[in-house]
């Protein structure tokens, strides 16, 4: 992907150590990883950890891990972070096995639901008390059904319509066919969603409504960036990583801050908010830069949320990538609920990674209504400083404002935003975001996904990957965003 068009952890179970001073960080790391933006354990190093090897997904602690070590049912596929072995039957599992509900299904002709349990391939027929005792699991079931009902009303694809029934009502035949790809979707959905649950953000699932299902996507799921050492050094050395007062002293010579006129901000503490000033100091174009013809997309624009955390994106130019959001840090003195900390607050709307077709592959769909200007999720991947421009652009998102020249690559490690499909008239956009909870944290580039207009349940969330001239070059993959779209997505 081209510009900002295509890019928080359950802590990695890799051995890692918390970072010390920035000097220590410079010498020690091989690979760095950002930890969750925890709101309670904030001071010091707990938000940032360093791992000394390449990131590798681990099976999270719990019944799944136990089953992976001792179960005898072996899955024919291997997915990172998903148990390969399960307990084959109730009698095989140890007596003290922690039976944790994995998923709930409706069965035609039955009033009570059926369930599967983590680490086990046994289906249980539950009694009438189950629903009252498991409200969260029932809520997930209802969300899935609402999504499928919405699709039933809007899709014209006969195969999708046929398969909606399979996902709404489990049959005994399907249950008895444990080799069916359907059950691998169940596992990948459950374990990836678990990472979101642990991280405190809204969940998601994978769906393939095809008679011949394709295998679920195989990659390492991370809810926050993994940062390569060379990119990390660039972040540490960037002006954006300075504390606010240091920046003020360096760029403005300490003169202008106290006398500068304050511009309106939605921050809870407008009299202390530093965000607009940070934009001025770091990102606003000077008269000189605007004269350079290469900067024709300038001037850069600061996008500010309203008091509810929504951006006004009615006239958003999705072709130009020169927009930035600046979020509050502790320097602003506001709370974690401040509307200018929307990315830090994390994904709140449930989404579905949905198999669209053989051309597009998987895309992202809304499982709840999303409003125009609303934050959807973050583009997460490996942050790296590319040595050359010969990269496959499919899963790359180039950073152009916050630590210019870095790339967020979600090919091997990433989150659900790596699936957002291209549309020539998109309903969402990626926006570079300057965001850190504490001024002492290094500034790592983050990218928010925002809705440009209202998005209904079941609708695909799309962005525009490339500029108009690239899309109309006639070379590359034929764009499948709508029937007979004349454009192409460049291959390199
Ligand atoms: C970032 S990936 C999106 C996830 C990908 N669809 C998958 O299943 O992993 C970008 C790739 O998706 C496909 N794609 C996305 N939108 C498309 C569109 N409108 N037309 C054709 N292919 C598209 C292209 O293969 C593109 O290189």
TrEMBL record:
Q: Does the keyword Transferase apply?
A: yes
One Pfam short name: SET
Occurrences of domain SET (ranges): 349-466
Judging by the UniProt lineage, the source's domain of life is Eukaryota
- The answer to whether keyword Cell inner membrane applies is no
Q: Which GO terms describe its biological process?
A: methylation
**Which keywords fit this entry according to its UniProt record?**
Chromosome, Metal-binding, Methyltransferase, S-adenosyl-L-methionine, Transferase, Zinc
Q: Where are the residues of the annotated region Disordered? A: 1-21
Give start-end positions of Polar residues composition bias. 10-21
- A Gene Ontology MF term for this entry? methyltransferase activity
Q: What is its main location?
A: nucleus
Gene Ontology cellular component annotations, sorted alphabetically:
chromosome
Q: Where is this protein found?
A: Chromosome
Q: What is this protein called?
A: SET domain-containing protein
From which source organism is this entry? Caenorhabditis briggsae
